[in-house]
Amino acid sequence: MILVEAPGKDPRPCIDYRNLNKITKTKFFPLPNIEERIEIVSSAQYITVLDLSKGYWQIPLTERAQRLAAFVTNFGTYKPLRLPFGLKNAPYEFRLAGYYSRYIPMFSSIAAPLTDSLKGKARKGPITWTKECEEAFDELKNCLCNYPVLYSPDYQKPFIVETDASDQGMGVVLSQLADNETEEHPIIYLSKKFKSVEKRYSVSEKECAGHHLCSFKT
């Protein structure tokens, strides 16, 4: 085990679990589907949202797992009592999911400069922060602060599907009319960045791809 210094943070212990991970059977666990969760709470009056501080440390290890994950230091051999970083199945036991794309129309197109900067060689070296990256970052922050809150769906009312597309990607808004029959309430935003082949679609095909995305997701 070694300690890695992090600017402004406590040193982080790093343990080499590669040999243990080679003989560990992968444990797959499906993440909850957000659409199904929304359907369950659509008629609820109260909704509680919880988050965890230092999430991995909230998961205790069994006695056997503690023995297998033991590590050696200059001061002796120790067994972790909580889930450490580096174990093969740790992400399947605990994973935080970001839902920002569901709250911002055309999220994939707006964030394209940011996601492009993480491709190829940039993943192994410093990120080149361009003017386009800065503009995309600022626009995403503005969208998070200003776009309307999503509403729970009412399955007794008809749904409205609106699609849009650009050279970079497509977006879909699923909404319903409010009780006054004049105002539309957004239920969910969907978006997808186009692959190189999809960028050659015609305008009509790009718009239809949005409908297909909506039917697949909902």
Describe the fold and architecture.
- The chain is of the alpha+beta class and 218 residues long.
- It contains 8 helices and 7 strands; from the N terminus they run ββαααββααααβββα.
- It has a 3-stranded antiparallel sheet. A two-stranded antiparallel sheet has the order 1-2. Strands 3-4 form a two-stranded antiparallel sheet.
- The longest helix has 16 residues, at 131-146.
- It is extended and about 70 Å long.
- The model is unreliable at 95-99 (pLDDT under 50).
Biggest sheet statistics: 3 strands, antiparallel
Number of helices: 8
User: How many whole angstroms does the radius of gyration measure?
Assistant: 22 Å
| SSE sequence, one letter per element | EEHHHEEHHHHEEEH
Helix content: 25-40%
> What is the terminal separation in angstroms?
46 Å
Q: Tell me, what's the shape?
A: extended
The poorly predicted ranges are 95-99
Please give the number of β-strands.
7
Adjacency order of strands in the biggest sheet: 5-6-7
Mean pLDDT: 75
Structural class: alpha+beta
How much β-strand is present in the residues? 15-25%
Characterize this entry briefly.
The protein is an alpha+beta fold.
Q: Helix and strand layout, with pairings?
A:
Elements: E1 2-4, E2 12-14, H1 18-22, H2 34-41, H3 63-68, E3 71-73, E4 76-78, H4 90-93, H5 107-110, H6 112-116, H7 131-146, E5 160-165, E6 169-177, E7 184-193, H8 203-217
Antiparallel strand pairs: 1-2, 3-4, 5-6, 6-7
Domain Reverse transcriptase/retrotransposon-derived protein RNase H-like: 129-210
Domain Reverse transcriptase: 8-96
Organism: Oedothorax gibbosus
